[in-house]
Every structure is written in structure tokens, then in C-alpha cells.
Prior knowledge:
Layout: E1 2-4, E2 7-10, H1 12-21, E3 30-35, H2 49-62, E4 72-74, E5 80-82, E6 100-105, H3 118-134, E7 144-146, H4 178-197, H5 200-203, E8 209-212, E9 219-223, E10 232-237, E11 241-243, E12 246-248, E13 251-253, E14 260-262, E15 266-268
Parallel strand pairs: 3-6, 3-7, 4-6
Antiparallel strand pairs: 1-2, 2-5, 4-5, 8-11, 8-15, 9-10, 12-13, 13-14
Helix pairs in contact: 1-3, 3-4
Amino acid sequence: MNKEGKFILLNRDEFKKWLFENNFKRPIQLIQNHHTYIPNYSHFNGKNHFEKVEGMERTHVEREFGEIAQNITTFKDGVICICRDFNKQPCGIYGANKFALCIENLGNFNLGGDIMAEEQKKSIIFINAALCVKFNIKPDTNSIIYHHWYDLKTGKRTNGTGTTKSCPGTNFFGGNTVDAATKNFIPLVAEVYNSLKSNNNTKEEIIPQGKVIVDINDVLNVRTGPGPAYKFVRALKNGDGINIYAEKDGWLKISGNEEWVNGKFVQRL
């Protein structure tokens, strides 16, 4: 592990440990896969990981994203970089950012571009699988998504029709279509997902998700403990997504801190 400012460089084992030891307040339902196009392999020398993500952040700030757009970046050598806080939604796919995490894979993976290195392939598959286990997501093309499947103008999913980007690349694990993902990418992710899920050390880390269900003009109170006598912390609106960390006496713990809500106003997802 190596850290520079907010950026953290990890190998796959370190990423697994970091992911399963941390709790996140924001519910995650989508995993975005992208490629950088530029910078590509010709800009990476095996030592300039921090330089590349810092450069991407400067570009993203210029585009008024506030900071680096992606939560995770992978490199040719398989190194994984934690970039944007997981508790912040990414600026990855217009129309599909709210409950998402964004993986940006350094390289140009269009046909005729970079040939993806084996270590980077392993890391991309591993990250998608580990995130599915952590956030209790089924690995399929409804939850693991490509930028190419979303229209740039409307933000609606069109599965590659309309105005789209080629991202994550026309040669990303055999193509950027839904069919290519179903045939070539999802089975690889599912294999690692099943292996991780069967490991007792990770099985307990799965965090169920829920959605607040209250009257449209009402709110759900968050309290410091499992009961109405505990101190009020904040309020949630109808439709807000939550993670469920623990349950006691009909009350649900919704963060790594002492934040609890009445479970009868929550729909399990």
C-alpha cells in the first residue's frame, strides 16, 4: 500500500482487505466500467501512478467535476488506485451515477489500441467481483454497466444505440456491447464473485440494502440508537436508499456510526 494525499495505491489483496474492512454510508447498486482512452499505455511508465491520477483530477476539475470523477483507477501492472471517496457519487455516466461506483481503467481499449495486460485484466475482474460481494449485488449486465450503453444527451440506457461513447472500449474483454459483456466479461466476474462469496472471511461483510418508504410529505428520523428515545440525528426522505449494517428490536443500523431507523418504514432490496 502506498498513499499520496487522498490517492491510495493497492494490490488486489490489499484492495480486498481495504474494501471489506471499511463501511460506507451510500448504497451502491451499479458498477460502472470505463477506459481512459487518454492517458493510455504509452503515457504509463510503471512508476507514475500518482502522476496519472493527479493529472486526471486536474482535467476533471477543469471540466467542473469538483475533483477526480472516478472512485477507482486500474493500471497496466494491475495496481489499483482508490481515487474519489466511495461515499460520493461519481461523475461517470450521465443518468447512472446516483447509486454507482466508477472504475476507470487506464488505457485505450478500442480495437487497434492498447492490448490489455494480463495483470490489469485480473484486477478489473477482481474489483467488479469484490464490489458485488461487498454491496450484495448480483453480477449481471443490469448492475455491471458500460458507458457505451447510455445515451450522452438523455442519460437513458439505450444499450449502444443513439449518441454514445465507445467506453470502456470496442475491444474491452471482446467488445463493448451487452452481448459481449454477457458472453465474455460477466462469467469471469461471476467466477471470482462465487469464490469470494464462499470465503467465510468475506461472507459476513455483505451489507443488505433498503429504500425508505414514508408518506410523500413525511420524513424518517435517524436516531443514535435502536428506539424512539434516542437522540435525533437527521432525516431521510421517501425513496432514499440505505445500507443495512445491523438489526435490533425492529430497528436498522444504516451506517458505520450509531445511526438507526425504524425498520417498518424501510423496504428491503
